[in-house]
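Researcher: Please translate sequence to structure tokens.
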Amino acid sequence: MDIISAYREVGSYRAAAELCGTTHKTVKRTVEKFEADQSGETAPPKADRGHNYDAVTDLVTERVAKSQGRISAKRILPIARTAGYRGSDRNFRRLVAEEKKRWRTDHHRGRRPAVWAPGDYLIIDWATVGGLHLFCAVMAYSRWRFAAFATDEKATTTMALIAEALAAVGGVPAKVLADRMGCLKGGVVANVVIPTPDYVRFATHYGFAPDFCHANDPQSKGVVENLVGFAQRDLAVPLLTEAAVAGTTVDVHAANAAATVWCAEVNARIHSEICAIPNDKLDTERKLLSPLPSLRLEIGPPPVTRKVDRLSCVRFASARYSVPNRFIGTTLTVAQTSGRLVIVDPDTGEVVAEHDLAQPGTASVLDDHYGGARPAPHRGPRPRTTVEHQFCALGPTADQFLIGAAAIGNTRLASELEILLALGAAHGTEALTAALTRAVAFRRFRAADVRSILAAGAGAPQPRPAGEALILDLPTAPTRSLDAYAIRPSAGDQQVPS
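Model: Translation complete:
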């Protein structure tokens, strides 16, 4: 039933509401509006209801604009409380969400999808995973991917990996795009990045133009950003997990071997974005790439010469690196390559040794260069006088006796050696050696102690460590079998049958 007709019929808001299945407030509002339209009067405008956060709306708007829509309500709430806001946390979060939405609507960045041309861009980026530095590069058009691990993100390392990536690609694109890497950035003027002179020399040698993203603009190189995340999840994290289970650390050379296998696998599969195999697309793109230079540019510090010292080591960057003993006194060439130090004989071109770079003040030593593992330090007796030679000739027991006597501070040891030799002449060398062994076992390191042991002779007890079996020579007695004790009937006890 129509609300107006029902109201005219019953004359009550509540009764009309029950007939129409609505509320009495709706009936009243509808009737008043109908009567106002009939009389030609305009209904009064609806008054806006105030909010308990109106006093801090300007404050929230200012803070949201200052943080470019990134600040959270949790950070602004204490400031709003100080400014007089007394409402609930939920109501305030609603206000901040509306202001952030309004700010993003007014300040969004209109973007368009990237259209990559063949042979145009190689995009590079760095990432850090579990102490290792992951270098990623991707050909923008073919989505051909390259990944490698390094121990640092220095300029020499970055340029060496770019050269390695270009060699793997088989050509040079027109531009190499990177973010504002500190190792390649010489300065910024009017938001234009000035590359370092070394990077300019490197780019000129290979024939590409260095390009840099704007500040806070990772979307412009989103292709390599996706590769970095993919390589971290699918390559780096499994390597670190496997090393953690084994209780070892990831070696950068083993990681690079795994990265080479991983790149071969992903470049041979269909890419989900371009629906093609990157290797096949790269074959087409390679026709538009510039050729690689005939000579590879020398990157990093040039090789230096070092003389091998008496320790069979060469010094480089305040660290020592071992070489075989036969090169002591000769001059060798030392070169730094891919985080390793290569030592070469300049006369024959032979690689004498390879070491991982060591920290300053430390030494990298290989046992093979010294004929085996390092022996334990030996600071035993070195006899000089005739008496000392005669005493040490008794064997290792005499050396142990000398070391123990020196440890307890026996200052009369030099004169007591003659007494001990005299005891040996009286009792025999074997008896003296046995007495010295007993003296060392019981830590009695004076000549009088040895004399007492010799005087006791065989009557001295021979204690044994707890837990060992006690072996004694017991006397033997004649025994007989148990059958000898068996009871048997005699001949007179036998009964004659009736």
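Researcher: Any highlights?
Model: The chain has a mean pLDDT of 87.
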